[in-house]
Design brief:
The protein is an alpha+beta fold. It has 9 helices and 3 strands. It is extended, with a radius of gyration of 24 Å.
Length: 222
């Protein structure tokens, strides 16, 4: 039995991949723990990714080496900005490996995970009432927002977004097949069973693989 595996999770919306590693047998419900992947799943749900195994490893050392090699290969193949991986892989990458917090930073984050009592919340609220920002703080805030636009995108920005979209890699064929299902593979009796009137479609179980349910989920994702 293998120690672990390298997996690829593909975003159904744009075909952008995420490469990761996991131990034990393959779990199709696990799509990764990267920050970008987690945030996307929180917004769109776990079904937004399709996951498959790309390689197996017999030890932790081999698993780490293969993860780094696959991430590097994907960056060359698709482009660094066209995959969801931030770190280089292996033991966590340069983002977390060997990182040490200063005493000041430890003090600032020491409150994380703590829950204030109602009495403490009322006390904090009273202390903050009537507190005004200093002229220096107001000026610093104003300068920080200079040049920022909150309205519609300019034509130049739209052109950049359009150009970036055109550079995205095409959706892999195996993803297309999984999304729409092989053409002509559904028996007539199954088609008759799932045939419904337009506008009155009722989804089956959340993991149903019939063409109707797959197309319905894809339509909702977009």
């Amino acid at each position: 039995m293998s120690y672990g595996y390298i997996y690829e999770s593909v975003d159904k919306r744009n075909a952008m991949p995420y490469v990761g590693k996991a131990t034990g047998s393959f779990n199709p419900d696990y799509s990764g723990s990267g920050n970008r992947v987690v945030n996307i799943m929180k917004k769109y749900g776990k079904d937004i990714f399709i996951t498959r195994v790309v390689d197996w490893a017999d030890s932790a050392e081999q698993l780490n080496k293969k993860e780094k090699a696959y991430i590097a290969a994907y960056r060359i193949l698709y482009g660094k900005e066209c995959i969801y991986n931030i770190a280089d892989g292996g033991d966590g990458g340069p983002i977390t490996l060997g990182m040490k917090h200063s005493e000041e930073h430890k003090r600032k984050i020491s409150w994380l995970g703590k829950h204030h009592t109602e009495e403490t919340k009322i006390k904090m609220s009273r202390e903050r009432k009537g507190v005004k920002k200093s002229p220096e703080a107001i000026e610093k805030n104003r300068i920080g927002h200079l040049g920022k636009k909150t309205g519609p995108h300019s034509e130049e920005t739209k052109a950049k977004i359009r150009e970036a979209a055109l550079k995205r890699p095409p959706m892999p064929e195996w993803v297309k097949v999984k999304l729409r299902g092989p053409r002509g593979s559904m028996p007539e009796e199954v088609k008759a069973k799932h045939r419904v009137k337009r506008g009155s479609y009722t989804p089956h179980k959340f993991d149903c693989k019939c063409i109707c349910c797959v197309r319905h989920r894809n339509k909702n994702v977009v």
